[in-house]
Amino acid sequence: MDGGTTQDDGATAATRWRPRPVPAALAPAESLTGAGARSPAPERAARTRVLAWLVIAAVVIGVTAALDPTTLRPGWWSLGYVLGLVVGAASAVALLTVGRSWPDTVLAAIVVLLMGVVVLSVLANQSRSGGMLDVVLLLPLAVYAAVHLARRVCRVVLAVLVVAVAVVMGAVADGALQWATLTLLPSVAFLGTVEVVLALRSSVEGAVTALHRQALTDPLTGLQNRRALQERVDGALGDVTTFTTVLTVDVDHFKSVNDALGHDAGDAVLRRLGAGLREGTRGDDVVIRMGGEEFLVLSSTPADDAGAYAETLRVRAAEWLRE
Asked: Name one Pfam family in it (predicted).
């Protein structure tokens, strides 16, 4: 249904509205960043792949050590160590095949499993004081958790890491004071490294969010732009719902405003119209500047009422442009 072009005597420019029913689902959300969305598929695949290769590296190192007859001492610790390597190998295969959809808690459990293997590598070593150096292998696991896992889950992993260090040092320390010292030094180093990584992660995520918002925002009016509309159509923002009406808006004779009064005056008209649309539309409507003097209003207004809604906005737009 098309609305006619109307020129208001007191307005510098008039608006033209064309309400249209929208059959497709579009994502409505105030956020332009999709902050509540889960990690994108490529990122989730990458973090799963990184963990899989960490597990594979740990298994290869562990098997190499187990084949050395001077490394492991007979007993239950060695049996537990070998079982840990078997479970780790199975985990690596699962990560590479079906692990892409696994949540943070499952990935954190695998990280904790690897920490357990590191602890067992010391307890099963014939020279536990020499095997104590294996504690260094906990660092890449801690960094992985800081980079790829949710912060709350990462904190849990770090707590397990401190416990793992304490267990390892308890097996080699001579007295409580030495145990406390040996536990504190690597724990502080690991925790400090992780905090630095988390701070860098927050900084990078903030910069990416700001750049994303900037890319989806029209700098003149502060409204969402054509790219934001495309992301909504693609379902990239927020939860998917259905808008029932689109109002296309443009300004009649806008070129004459620029020619007669200059581009600064034309920009002022667009800013005023954009601000009016933002303030004058319904709460769940989304206003988008498509480019030039063309705007779009995505609305949940029923199609039967779209014409009346468009006319109301047209009359108000004439008032905005007179101000």
From this structure: GGDEF
